[in-house]
TrEMBL record:
Similarity comment text for this entry: Belongs to the YbaB/EbfC family.
Keywords: Coiled coil, Cytoplasm, DNA-binding
Complex formation: Homodimer.
Coiled coil: 4-31
Functional description taken from the UniProt entry: Binds to DNA and alters its conformation. May be involved in regulation of gene expression, nucleoid organization and DNA protection.
Principal cellular location given in the protein's record: cytoplasm
PANTHER family, per the entry: NUCLEOID-ASSOCIATED PROTEIN YBAB (PTHR33449:SF1)
Protein's name in the database: Nucleoid-associated protein QWY31_02800
Superkingdom, taxonomy of origin: Bacteria
The keyword Cytoplasm is annotated on this UniProt entry: yes
Pfam family, one: YbaB_DNA_bd
Length: 110
């Protein structure tokens, strides 16, 4: 028989684990690069850019547009990488708490 109280307890437990995992996202980092490594961006799991490195060879006024494009590309690559890491962390934190319900992806809840 379906036990509603037990299910509610599992939901509360899952919420607590999700919150804990989300709080840890600031410590997960990923790097993306572009221009053969001339521009590197590091972001955290909260999707905040925490470092941007630009090779000195690119710091010429005539290269401004290229530097901007390479910066955007590096940041986007880093954001994609950290998103995957964050999803894995959330999945690990909530593993075994809720039954495996087809079509229910908890990774998108943050």
């Amino acid at each position: 028989m379906f036990d509603m109280m037990k299910m509610m307890g599992k939901v509360k437990e899952m919420q607590a684990k999700m919150k804990e995992a989300q709080d840890k996202l600031v410590y997960i980092t990923a790097e993306g690069e572009s221009g053969g490594g001339m521009v590197k961006a590091t972001v955290n799991g909260k999707k905040q850019v925490i470092r941007l490195e630009i090779d000195h060879a690119l710091l010429k006024p005539e290269d401004k547009d290229m530097v901007q494009d390479l910066s955007v590309a590096a940041i986007n690559k880093a954001l994609e990488a950290v998103d995957e890491k964050a999803k894995e962390e959330i999945k690990k934190a909530t593993e075994g708490i809720m039954p495996n319900i087809p079509g229910m992806d908890l990774g998108g809840m943050f």
